[in-house]
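Task card 7
Instruction: Convert sequence to structure tokens.
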Amino acid sequence: MKVIMISGSPHKEGSSRLALREMEKVFAAEGIESELIEVGAGPVSGCTACGACKKTGVCVIGDRVNEAIEKLAAADALVVATPVHYASPAGALIAFLDRMFYAGGSKFAHKPAAAFASARRAGATASLDVINKYFTISQMPIISSTYWNMVYGSCQADAAQDAEGLQTARNLARNMAWLLRCIEAGKKSGIESPKSERGNVTNFIK
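Output:
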């Protein structure tokens, strides 16, 4: 089993990375592989709404989005971590996720997913809400923990003192590992993923 971890932080050793590292330790102890994709340090183009990906399943913009789509399609679960910028996820991360889910969301159905936010003070729950919407529209079960999925601190040294936040990250990883094993057991016993209805689209302006 494998978990893809996406970090939206521009800092490779920031608070978001600290939380992901706590999860990595749990996954390793559970025998689950994890792979980190960092998207926050470089420029990321927003979606151009060209619609080409609906025909090809591939984004026409040549950056790491298509690589991430293929990695998650081949993996079993997803964790997305973000710092809070202006009470919202990091802008580069939003641009990345917009394109990743618009082009490849149909490949992610029924893969467990979790969002995690790091904040100095406020905006963490709003940021989690933004990221969770990508999961819910893509039929991805959302993983919870023993508190809201967040850690506090203006830098990694501060966040390292948030014992409850790091505990929340570890418990999130344990819950994800448990659900992955439940899904694996279900598949072995013949339980298949549900089939979705398609075709009905309601427009509110005629």
